[in-house]
Amino acid sequence: MVGMARTLGASLVALAAGLAVTWAATDGFTAFTLETARRAAALAHPAPVPALPLRFADGQLRRLADLPEQWLLVDFVYTRCTSLCLAQGSADARTMELLASEAAQGRVALVSISFDPDHDDPAALRAFIARDGAAPPGRLAAAPAATQDVARWLDAFGVVVIDDGAGGYAHNEAIGIVDPDRRLVALIDAGDPEAAVAALRVRW
Asked: Is the pLDDT of residue 95 over 50?
């Protein structure tokens, strides 16, 4: 009996330790995937976006903090993509249609940041945002001014990029909501313009 009690006690200790690790790794069982954990963290603890320069489609160097005091929707792309990024481009165009009034008033902008700055120069960025017609007010595209800054941007927004071995990249897709103080306050699913706009408007 004593041996059984010791075995049971050891098992309970091991179970408690395992639960403690799981609790810590999943933010108290509220996040069971890395993506969910990142989104929960953005909601609970808004963090400043990198104060690093971006080269925009007009050729100018600016930080996100240098843009007018407005809300930002931020997604990550590479302009040579010929698969899912095309669908995301259409979703971005629809998002700007839904936000046309607010964008014209300077209240919001949608910024696509390229994680492929070696290829995505201002000309490529201009062509990217013009794929669905003339770029509407508030539609911006940029790339990190320095290649070594790419990792900082991806990490800040929880974006994972993997070389697909065929000259392109696979990456998770989400839209970051950045407030006028330039803090990442939410990460939401890409490809759903109505949901993106609703998530933004509820914060105004």
From this structure: yes
Is residue 116 one of the residues assigned to a domain? yes
Q: Are residues 122 and 191 in the same domain?
A: yes
16 lies in the same domain as 73: no
Burial 145-163 (b: 16+ CB within 10 A, else e): eeeebbeebbebbbbebee
Q: Are residues 98 and 165 in the same domain?
A: yes
Q: List, in sequence order, the alpha helices (H) in 26-112.
A: 34-44, 84-98, 100-104
pTM: 0.78
**Sequence-distant (≥ 6) Cβ neighbours of residue 9 within 8 angstroms:** none
Over residues 107-141, the pLDDT tens digits come to 999 999 999 999 999 999 999 988 766 678 899 99
Structural domain count, the chain: 2
Across the range 162-170, mean pLDDT stands at: 77
Question: Which residues span the domain enclosing 23?
Answer: 1-30
Q: Give me the pLDDT at residue 120, please.
A: 96
Residue 140: C-alpha distances to residues 52, 58, 69, 148 (Å):
16, 9, 15, 22
Structure tokens at 132: 């669905």
- Distance between alpha carbon 86 and the CA centroid of its chain, in Å? 17
